Structures
1.
Amino acid sequence: MADTLKFVHVLIRLIFIFLVIIVCDSSFIFMPCITDKDCPALKKNKGKGRCRKGYCVDGLIG
């Protein structure tokens, strides 16, 4: 019984770590901004970060 609980506990922790890594690398985390200069330069967009509705977006999207 204790081995099963320990296994479930470790499994939950591994899934949590995996989800944190996914969210940290996700492009869905929007950075707040005021002007286009507040947004980071993106290699795929040739350095053109855009500020739309108070958040940084990829220039190709917005």
2.
Amino acid sequence: MPNRILKESITTSDTINELTPEEEVFFYRLLVVCDDYGRMDARPSILRAKCYPLKLDSVSEDDIKSWLNKLVKVGLIKLYIGSDNKQYLQVVTWDKHQQVRAKRSKYPEPVEYIEENDRSNNADDSNMVSNDINCNQMNAYVPENPNPNPNPNPNTNINTYVATDVAQCVSVPAEKPSDSMEDGGAQSKKTGKDGYTQEFDEFWEYYPRKIEKKRAFRAWKARLREGVDPEILIQACKNYAAYCTKQGLEQRYIKHASTFLGPDKPFEEYINGPPETVQQGSSLLKEPKSWGLLRNLYDKYRQEEEKWV
């Protein structure tokens, strides 16, 4: 996931001050595992594994349930039911503080919100859903992210942008998602027997070092499952190729595509263009003067040394 923004104002936030130290840490860890729209699978078992991979022996699912309830209570997150009838969470003020780059969310749009009173602190994963929201609308397929902004009006409460027909539980025949929707919701069409998508083939055409294509495709699919737009990856690839050309980089110094698309996301440096030093002119890329001075000193030392041989 992209890096998330924390502002200094959290230190004096009345809402954050209502949390215990453990609950506050959980909230910050939650921010970095949410997708680009501030959404996440709300099952405690999933949250425990994602937020505390190195502390599974000291953090229990009961801890997660308790902390989750507290975040709902103070208004930092909302729990909702998606079109697949599963429970998810949404960080309430996400769009005010974080950048949204992906065109679609990894998780379904809200169908029904769960009020804090509808949840039980001791409930297990299967019965954490309110009993009064089992209407036929739950079976309808809701396209992921029909609106690219998770909350288009910052002055509108997050509860208010659930569709009217959903709120009234109007029965709608279920639609099966198109076969072209795969890899985390990104639109892709497979081409040829190799199974590569058209978007990936376009990416590969521009990438400056063509090696280990299968590994690169696996990394590509992993990023798409996280909600990254393939067009962003293609643009980053073009910018990186331009950077490599301008730098005159040899093939051995160019990142493998699987690394460029890897979990550390080096591609993010090139989304908006090559690094600033390249844009400002090649003079900034010249060898530092100190390197030349050191080389001259070394050459003089070698010359003096050769006189005594």
